[in-house]
Here is the input.
Amino acid sequence: MIPSIDVVGTSASPAAGFIAGAVPEPHLRPHPHPHPHPHPHPHPHPHPHTERWPFRLRLARGAQDLCKVLEMRHSAYARHLPESLSQTLRQPEAIDSAEGVVLLLAEAKLDGSPMGTMRIQSNRFRPLALQQSVPLPPWMADLPLAEATRLGVSPEGAGRLVKVALFKAYYLYCLQAGIRYMVITARAPLDRQYERMLFKDVYPHLGYIPLPHVFNLPHRLLYLDVQNVRQQWEEAGHPWCEYMFYTDHPDLQIQPG
Here is the structure.
């Protein structure tokens, strides 16, 4: 079942060495941000179940996978950027192979064709890419962070489902890697999708900021609290709760780097 939000399980913890598509209970720690935590959701949890996808979602490994990532990345960006900008995405970027970076790849079970991709960079080894353009506030800068960039999905078939699955993979990766905040930059109108996922502005007073590292296009800088998002979504009755936290997706297999 695809969650009803339009964007781009309480089972046992996954075995060591990989992440399956079910979400373990996060360990809640004190929040450095001044806002208090919401109260736990009073309603009972839905019964866990398993769901299969028509694609597999995993980490890209090797030259063949990288070619699929680049194919998907360029075709996605070419739909809304001039070719003079998108053509650079036909080639790998230096950060693609940097330490602390993983590339997600969704590929069709039918023929192995690429259906979606996302890059995740943690700040374990170097500052996030977005920090080339804008500094982070002190309450966030020294905590474990992970930035998602280069999101691209196929416009056909299960593209919407792939986008939701990539977000679940991003969340699970961060949860297992001990990341505190998921951080993204988003242009209008795509930023509204992240608002519906309860992302918040890092700098509410700044709004859209031109970012030199992404073609100088105006973006909002947004974040989501990994450790507390489950509690926040349940408190809000978010329509993604069952899909994200109570559904096991065996076709999702990723390993933290």
